[in-house]
Amino acid sequence: MIPARVRYSMASLLIAMAATAPAHAQPQGSQPIANAVGWIQGTLLGNVATAVAVIAVAMVGFMMLNGRINWRMGATVVLGCFILFGAATIVGGIRAAAG
C-alpha cells in the first residue's frame, strides 16, 4: 500500500508536468503560472535533484544491505525516483493512449 502523501505528491507532480505542456488556448494571465510550474519542473529534474536522487538511492541501498531498513521501504524510494525522473515519459504515454 502506497502512503497517502506519496500518492498525493505523485499526483501533483503529474499535474505539474501536464501543466507545462503547451496549450492551444491559454487563459489571459496564465503565463506567470506556467513559468512558475516550468521553474519547479526544472528544479525537480535538474542537476542538483539528480545528484540528490543518486545519493538517496545509494544510501537506501546500503541501509537495505545492512538490514537497517526493510526492503519494501527501500523499493518505495527507488520506485519514487523512477517515477520522478520518468514523469514526462509517463505523461506522454498516458496522453498517447488517451488521444
Describe the model:
The structure is a single chain. The chain is an all-alpha fold. Helix content is 78%, strand content 0%. Helix 3 runs antiparallel to helix 4. The longest helix has 20 residues, at 47-66. The radius of gyration is 16 Å and the shape is elongated.
Set out the fold topology:
Elements: H1 4-19, H2 31-44, H3 47-66, H4 71-85, H5 87-98
Helix pairs in contact: 3-4
The structural class is mainly alpha
| Main pleated sheet | none
N-to-C CA distance: 30 Å
Number of strands: 0
**Average pLDDT, all residues:** 79
Give the topology string: H per helix, E per strand. Answer: HHHHH
Task: Report helical residue fraction.
Answer: over 70%
Low-confidence stretches: none
Beta percentage is: under 5%
Q: What is the overall shape?
A: elongated
Number of helices: 5
How large is the radius of gyration?
A: 16 Å
Which keywords apply here?
mainly alpha; elongated; 5 helices; about 100 residues
What would a concise description of this structure say?
By secondary structure, the chain is an all-alpha fold. The protein has helices at residues 4-19, 31-44, 47-66, 71-85, 87-98.
